[in-house]
Write a structure and sequence with these properties.
Order of helices and strands: EEEEEHHEHHH
Helix content: 40-55%
Structural class: alpha+beta
Number of strands: 6
Number of helices: 5
Shape: elongated
Largest sheet: 3 strands, antiparallel
Strand content: 15-25%
Radius of gyration: 21 Å
Distance between the termini: 53 Å
Length: 157
């Protein structure tokens, strides 16, 4: 591997270890010419996931877009960035485990909401309000009643 600091094309691996629960390998490298040390990651290249929106439009799954929506839903709650990263990783693993390269937004939304309901009720209601497009207070009340009963409401189409 090429050194990032000098033109040398020969670096040595000085340490390797598993990262991301065995999903990748972290390698520490050193350049024999300039002595610079840096880290690289090796991971399995998976096929791109496609998200099918309600209007039929297909777009690439965007982990950052999903995280941004979750961060908004979790503002001023005790949910940590690490918990949200883990939530998104779990969802990605579940989608890949199904063997499909395409997922509908309805399935993706339900996967997110089932995990948020366990993680934080306030974040769940915030996310649900956008995802389910509540039109009035009755929608919120119905969702809150179901949370109190310990049930997650299925979407109304």
């Amino acid at each position: 591997m090429k050194c990032t600091q000098c033109p040398s094309e020969d670096t040595k691996v000085i340490e390797s270890r598993d990262a991301n629960e065995g999903e990748s390998i972290r390698r520490r490298r050193a350049c024999p010419d300039c002595g610079y040390r840096f880290t690289t990651y090796e991971r399995i290249e998976r096929p791109q996931l496609i998200v099918i929106k309600n209007n039929g439009v297909r777009e690439l799954f965007n982990r950052d877009k999903l995280l941004a929506g979750l961060y908004r839903a979790c503002e001023k709650t005790p949910v940590t960035s690490l918990q949200l990263e883990q939530l998104v990783s779990d969802i990605e693993k579940e989608i890949y485990a199904c063997g499909d390269q395409e997922v509908h937004t309805t399935k993706l939304g339900e996967m997110i909401m089932s995990r948020l309901a366990v993680l934080n009720e306030v974040a769940y209601v915030r996310f649900a309000s956008v995802y389910r497009r509540f039109k009035d207070i009755a929608g919120f009340e119905k969702e809150l009643l179901q949370i109190r009963k310990g049930k997650v409401v299925q979407p109304v189409d």
